[in-house]
Design brief:
Blueprint (H helix, E strand, L loop, with lengths): L1 H38 L3 H7 L7 H4 L1 E3 L1 H20 L4 H20 L8 H15 L4 H8 L2 H7 L1 H17 L2 E3 L11 H26 L5 H6 L17 H10 L6 H36 L3 H6 L15 H38 L2 H8 L6 H26 L1 H22 L2 H46 L1
Antiparallel strand pairs: 1-2
Length: 469
């Protein structure tokens, strides 16, 4: 038994390490994808930080632009010529003349436009104007590439300025190959292919494993169990691989998304619950309003057997049962508790009636009998109230009285139904009930928007915490 547990544990550990390995490979692949997507826009930055990264130009089909490279080569030749024959030599003047001509062509042809780097050319022209204190870029290059200027300012310092400030800007220009379909060459698939093969094999193996564990699933259904891994196999829209990479890092315990997941679930539950609660409540109230508008309220209340396709839980007339229950509660529970108040009321009524009688007033004037009327009044009120309560309790228990009460309720219901269905009554009641339900509907939705669902979710969260403990 212990050996089986150890084997199972070691299998789980191996699977976890395999999942982490694949997740890390997917993360590396995603980093390469984002680097490839940002390489063109951030090429100047990458060249400054990592100069050797220029080798990646081969993947993007980037080549040095022939015109700008020829310009830089002429500058190098000028520097070499000056070292050999001095600045005032005819050979150096010939090189300077070529550079002035190439500078004019650089401004007119704008070879930076192909790489969408016209802003770089504008910066070059601005730098050379400021450095030579000229108004136009043409004049600035003519002055800069002249023997007089270089002699006065020092050709070494000026060429150092060019090499440090102007040359990197010119060198950032490039020419990009175009394939037979008219698109820029991109050989990123060469780097992506090994990852794609690994992901495809892992996807097929996982699909086979899922199919073996769930024989009821066909091949397609087993694939869809890991639908997000399909993004790892797409040759286009590679940035979508962020979805499977994030999921895999979370499943491999390399990325903690639990706070985000809990918050998303909470927000989704709040919004979904608010909408569902509002829809259910509003629909129920709207149905009640429709019943009232159609004039079916009295029939719906007093004749439940006609509620079709209304589903009844039992065969009881709820309206009659509620009326009977209210009568029983009133007589058996409420009446004994209010008997002292009933007795006080009867005592007051009897005393008020006797005070108006001349005989009662004369008896109060007889010595020794002046307290007798009040005692008799109290006794009479107590007996009457007690008798009334007892008679009601006995009467309600009498089968004959029960039958008479049932007939009374039935007759009351029929008469009430007839009166309600009279035009002036039903119109007024319908209007009042519809307005009342409309107010309930508005305040119901408003209450939900304020704090109803949020409070319920908080209570549910507290209950889950108690259960987890």
């Amino acid at each position: 038994m212990t050996s089986k547990i150890d084997i199972k544990t070691s299998t789980v550990v191996r699977n976890r390490w395999f999942e982490r390995l694949i997740a890390i490979l997917a993360l590396i692949n995603l980093c390469l994808i984002f680097f490839d997507l940002t390489y063109i826009a951030g090429r100047d930055f990458y060249l400054q930080v990592l100069p050797n990264i220029v080798r990646y130009d081969l993947i993007k089909g980037i080549q040095p632009h022939p015109e700008t490279q020829n310009y830089l080569n002429k500058v190098t030749q000028l520097e070499e010529q000056v070292l050999q024959t001095a600045l005032d030599s005819p050979q150096a003047e010939s090189k300077l003349s070529q550079l002035r001509f190439l500078s004019h062509r650089l401004i007119e042809d704008n070879p930076f436009d192909v790489a969408n780097k016209s802003g770089t050319l504008a910066k070059i022209k601005n730098e050379i104007r400021l450095h030579t204190n000229q108004q136009s870029a043409r004049d600035a290059f003519n002055v800069f590439w002249s023997q007089t200027y270089l002699s006065e300012m020092g050709w070494q310092s000026e060429l150092n300025f060019f090499n440090s400030q102007i040359k990197p800007l010119i060198n950032s220009n490039y020419y990009r190959d175009i394939d037979r379909f008219g698109n820029f060459v991109n050989r990123f698939w060469v780097l992506d292919l090994p990852f794609g093969i690994i992901f495809a094999l892992e996807f097929l193996a996982r699909t086979f494993y899922i199919g073996r564990r769930n024989p009821s699933l066909n091949w397609l259904e087993a694939m869809l169990r890991r639908w997000y891994d399909l993004f790892l196999l797409l040759p286009q829209w590679r940035w979508l691989r962020v979805i499977p990479v994030t999921i895999r890092l979370y499943q491999a315990d390399l990325l903690n998304l639990e706070p985000l997941r809990s918050q998303l679930n909470h927000d989704f539950a709040v919004n979904f619950a608010e909408e569902i609660t509002e829809m259910v409540g509003i629909q129920a109230i709207d149905q009640m309003q429709d019943v009232i508008r159609q004039g079916d309220l009295a029939r719906w209340l007093f004749h439940p057997e006609t509620r079709k396709p209304y589903v009844q839980v039992n065969q009881i007339n709820e309206v009659k049962a509620i009326a009977t229950r209210l009568v029983n509660i009133s007589i058996y529970d409420v009446l004994p508790q209010i008997q002292p108040h009933l007795e006080a009321l009867m005592h007051h009524s009897i005393a008020s009636t006797l005070n108006e009688s001349p005989v009662y007033q004369q008896v109060q004037n007889i010595p020794g009998l002046n307290h007798l009327p009040s005692q008799l009044t109290e006794k009479l009120a107590h007996d009457l109230s007690q008798s009334a309560c007892n008679n009601l309790i006995k009467a309600i228990s009498d089968p004959v009285v029960g039958e008479l009460t049932s007939n009374l309720i039935t007759n009351f219901r029929d008469v009430l139904e007839d009166e309600i269905q009279k035009k002036h009554n039903i119109q007024e009641l319908q209007s009042l009930l519809i307005d009342m339900l409309e107010e309930i509907k508005i305040n119901y939705v408003k209450g939900i928007n304020y704090s109803g669902v949020e409070k319920i979710l908080e209570e549910a969260s507290q209950i889950h915490q108690i259960i987890s403990r």
